[in-house]
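I hope you will forgive my troubling you with a question about protein structure. Could you please explain, in whatever detail you think fit, how the structure tokens follow from the sequence? Thank you for your consideration; the sequence and its tokens are set out here.
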Amino acid sequence: MKLKKITFTLLILLLSLPLFSQTNTNPEFKKIIESIIANKKADIGVSIFISGTPKKEVTQINGNNLYPMLSTFKFHIALAILHKVEKGELSLQQKIFIKKEELLENTYSPFKEKYPEGNLELTLEEALQWIVIYSDNNLTDILLRLIGGPQYVEKFINSKNVIIKNDEEDMHKDWDSQFINKTTPNETIRLLQDFYNGKILNKEHTKWLYTNMMSTASGAKRLKGKLPQNIKMAHRTGTSFTNEKGMTGAINNFGIIELPNKKNIYIAVFVHDTYETFNNSEAIIADISKATYDYYNKK
């Protein structure tokens, strides 16, 4: 009886191990990534997982360190909203009235640029597309209020490695407020895999979000910047302000890259407190993505 109890306990511990504790590192590929980020004036976190390989290869650099999320948290928000849709608490076709006073100045809002007077109706689906595709900050906060604020999203994701306390308005209050929401590269990859494999949303809403993330308008010079134009990728970006010393607090991009050989690249790159130029910081992300694509597309 005692032996059975010990065996059962060991099984539970094994199943509860972090995702990456049951994967393999490819030293050859890791050296390639290390060479890209060597001597860069930035704190860089990287996590890359390749599906469809027998060895379940993962490459991580600072993978368990917390990094500011910025607008990448809109992925987490979309997951939480679509989950409420599945529970019947919301409908993608329900109408949402967008008041003029909700369209704040001094924030990134393509919706406000197009409809500066506001006072119009959108369906929830349309509002969510403004967030997922165009990264609209005003619509983000409107939908956050609809579902109970950042704390609801954090509770829904339910991970010690996802901290979501501020909405977009809060993040714009001062320099430090941008960096309250945090996650790790490894946690991001875990969440992307769970999402893609249908462990968070049903098939219909997984497809809806994945398809809209493939149309993301931002980040053209990041993960997708040096990839072939025909490569399919679903991704999310995040960007902070640059201070008077020329330091940009965060330039982020994560996503899923579909390889022609039916493998998927799950990749997250967080460039934090970078003194590189903005273009060079984006190029770091593009170079990591290109190196990953080239290496695993050949295998």
Residues 278-298 form the longest helix (21 residues). Residues 24-298 form a domain with the Beta-lactamase fold (CATH 3.40.710.10). The chain has one domain: 24-298. Strands lie at 43-50, 58-61, 67-68, 95-98, 120-123, 162-163, 182-183, 233-239, 248-258, 264-274.
